[in-house]
């Protein structure tokens, strides 16, 4: 009986180790593909002057930059957590603050994209006057300012309660480390709820307005308005996935108390579904669905980069994104 129990325990341990290794490899492959495609798209954006003069492409480029930076930081923190690698408290707090800032910046940029489509469809005669370089600069400044409020509040609140001697210690870095007190977690959660409710209202408003404009549009503009409706709907789905990302830690804590294998699988699944997946939608929406950008992307990827293995990787990434 004891030998049977030992075999069962050994089998469970092997299954746990195999599942963790498989999920780790899967995540790193997906992160590599994501970063490769994003780098190609950033390169395409920088090479073509037309894209640098249009608001929607500038906002798209910002999502590429913030999502790529967020992916690198999140993946680095995930690897360090899996290896239980301790780092100094101060760099950890800075990393967590920057990661939260980038996490909020993406959905705010999505809202700005929806507003840009609303102006283009519902106020076409004023679009050129509204979409100026000064307006774009102010819009980007507002996005980064709002996205900095919650992480800066979290950082200041953390520094206010942590003992001075603890700042010299080392720890396994995670965002939850900065939420030691209940009031910190509750205040942060409340701020996120207000922010995302505000963004949902704006996206719903733009969708309804564009839908109304689509009903009264001429046959020539039907295609453009329908495309804009699908774009706003995809952005709403992205925003939903981003919101779910902040609920994951609470679900993971519950599963952790039940089963370690289920916890490990759930954590990697959440990373793929709620961090990688919403960031993959932006390249799909604006990079592959936009004909002008897609042709420019293909041209620069296949003409400016000569090695055949890069071309093969490019087509493989496009296939995976389309699937």
From TrEMBL:
Superkingdom of source: Eukaryota
Regions crossing the membrane: 25-46, 58-80, 86-119, 140-170, 190-208, 229-248, 268-288
Keyword Transmembrane helix: yes
Residues covered by the G-protein coupled receptors family 1 profile domain: 37-286
Keyword field contains Membrane: yes
Keyword terms, alphabetized: Membrane, Transmembrane, Transmembrane helix
Entry-linked Pfam families: 7tm_1 (PF00001)
Cell location: Membrane
GO MF annotation list: G protein-coupled receptor activity; odorant binding; olfactory receptor activity
One GO term describing the cellular component: membrane
PANTHER family: G_PROTEIN_RECEP_F1_2 DOMAIN-CONTAINING PROTEIN, GROWTH HORMONE SECRETAGOGUE RECEPTOR TYPE 1-LIKE-RELATED
Protein name, per record: G-protein coupled receptors family 1 profile domain-containing protein
Organism: Electrophorus electricus
Lineage, uppermost ranks: Eukaryota, Metazoa, Chordata, Craniata, Vertebrata
Chain's gene name: MC2R
